[in-house]
């Protein structure tokens, strides 16, 4: 599977500065997540309880000229909670901006590549697929690179760092309770692996149903004169309602499949929380833990469950995005491609186009004596159109670039000295 996603690496590599910034901001987010529940411990154990504050905390309070009594500790807990919140919001804002900028740029780079590829594919390829299907691949399926980079690089880095920091601190509080909290990881991994293929099939069916709906709308709107001439509005509306119903059923099944995958992990997490409440409460009664430490551990348990859930949901998201990726790769790997000759001459967009017997420099092309101009409606640079009738050619002022007629199945190309039609690169 990852061999397919390897095809997207060149588009992600162009955004490496933003990706490096995302990794750095992720490390800061991990530190903030570790500190988040500690104001509660400060309040419960040191301000409201009878636990002596540590020397580091007393030194910080005395540095600001205050006395480490109960009132000061309560105020310190509130100030610490507010500072942690401000830092967390600032880092998350920078992280969201960086990831949005990098992700959107990758999506549009891939869409531009797919758009260029679609223009180079032969009419045989396009005859097998509707325009609406190609539009859906270009506008919707290219977002698979956003999901792929998020699930392969960003989310694993963020959640692994968060789990490492929280687990290390939770282990220092109580190793036994930390092991209970970690027990839900294998269940989440197994459920994600088992249901991955099922999710992919539902996602593929959902994407195809939506593509059919878009294709019908595109075909109808592009043929509006014929629709009104043959009074086909009612028939097209009925067809739209039929396809909309199929798309709704596919979306509903896809959403249901996504929720069913998280059910085993949710049950395991709830069971782990119940065990931690029972064993943690007993240890508090036995004097092995403080109430503040138990509250911090419960907060860490919730953060660990969320990290595990996001980490293993990346597999299900990848299987869902794989359906869109396959539709993109069908375009990128299509063999029906129009190829130029190895020695094809590139025509300039503006200015001069030179070739044996032809000169196009802001004026009508000069066709050498004895040359033939094949095809009706061939256009030449310099504001001229060259039409052929038998062996004679005449010039009609028109446009300023050489381009083949789109109505003629045989491309109409200016062929001075009998150029072959693949010898001009278009």
> CA-to-CA gap between the ends?
36 Å
SSE order in H/E notation?
Answer: HHHHHHHHHHHHHHEEEEEEEEE
Beta-strand percentage range: 5-15%
Could you say what the CATH architecture of the largest domain is?
Up-down Bundle
CATH class of the largest domain: Mainly Alpha
Radius of gyration: 33 Å
| Overall outline | elongated
The CATH topology annotation of the largest domain reads as: ABC transporter transmembrane region fold
Can you put this structure into words, describing what you see?
The protein is mainly α. It has 2 domains: 2-332, ABC transporter transmembrane region fold, CATH 1.20.1560.10; 345-425, no CATH class. It contains 14 helices and 9 strands. It has helices at residues 2-5, 9-13, 16-35, 38-47, 55-63, 70-120, 123-127, 131-139, 144-173, 175-182, 184-222, 224-229, 233-285, 291-332, and strands at residues 345-346, 352-355, 358-361, 372-373, 378-380, 384-389, 392-396, 414-415, 424-425. The strands form 4 sheets. Strands 5-6-7 form a 3-stranded antiparallel β-sheet, with no helix packed on it. A hairpin with a 3-residue loop joins strand 5 (378-380) and strand 6 (384-389). Helix 4 runs antiparallel to helix 6 and helix 8 crosses helix 11. Residues 351-422 have low confidence and may be disordered.
């Amino acid at each position: 599977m990852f061999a397919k996603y390897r095809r997207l690496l060149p588009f992600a590599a162009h955004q490496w500065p933003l990706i490096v910034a995302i990794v750095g901001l992720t490390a800061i987010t991990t530190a903030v997540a570790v500190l988040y529940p500690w104001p509660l411990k400060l309040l419960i154990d040191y301000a409201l309880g009878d636990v002596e504050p540590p020397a580091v905390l007393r030194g910080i309070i005395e540095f600001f000229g205050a006395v480490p009594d109960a009132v000061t500790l309560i105020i310190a807990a509130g100030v610490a909670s507010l500072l942690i919140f401000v830092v967390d919001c600032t880092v998350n804002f920078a992280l969201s901006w960086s990831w949005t900028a990098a992700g959107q740029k990758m999506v549009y780079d891939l869409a531009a590549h797919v758009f260029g590829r679609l223009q180079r594919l032969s009419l045989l390829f396009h005859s097998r697929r509707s325009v609406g299907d190609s539009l859906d691949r270009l506008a919707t399926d290219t977002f698979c690179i956003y999901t792929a980079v998020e699930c392969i690089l960003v989310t694993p880095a963020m959640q692994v760092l968060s789990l490492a920091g929280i687990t290390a601190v939770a282990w220092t509080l109580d190793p036994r309770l930390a092991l209970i909290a970690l027990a839900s990881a294998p269940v989440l991994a197994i459920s994600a692996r088992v249901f991955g293929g099922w999710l992919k099939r539902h996602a593929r069916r959902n994407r195809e149903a939506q593509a059919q709906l878009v294709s019908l709308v595109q075909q109808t709107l592009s043929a509006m004169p014929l629709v009104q001439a043959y009074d086909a509005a009612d028939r097209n509306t009925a067809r739209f309602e039929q396809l909309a119903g199929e798309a709704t059923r596919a979306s509903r099944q896809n959403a249901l499949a996504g929720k069913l995958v998280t059910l085993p992990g949710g049950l395991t997490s709830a069971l782990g929380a119940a065990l931690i409440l029972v064993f943690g409460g007993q240890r508090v009664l036995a004097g092995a833990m403080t109430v503040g430490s138990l509250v911090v551990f419960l907060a860490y348990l919730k953060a660990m469950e969320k990290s595990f859930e996001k980490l293993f949901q990346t597999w299900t998201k990848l299987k869902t995005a794989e359906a869109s990726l396959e539709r993109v790769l069908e375009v990128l790997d299509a063999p029906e491609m129009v190829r130029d000759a190895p020695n094809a001459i590139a025509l300039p967009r503006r200015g001069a186009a030179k070739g044996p017997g032809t000169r196009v420099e802001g004026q009508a092309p000069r066709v050498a004596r004895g040359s033939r101009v094949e095809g009706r409606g061939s256009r030449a640079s310099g504001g001229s159109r060259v039409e052929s009738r038998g062996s004679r050619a005449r010039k009609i002022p028109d446009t300023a670039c050489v381009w083949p007629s789109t109505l003629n199945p045989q491309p109409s190309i200016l062929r001075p000295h009998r150029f072959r039609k693949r010898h001009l690169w278009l």
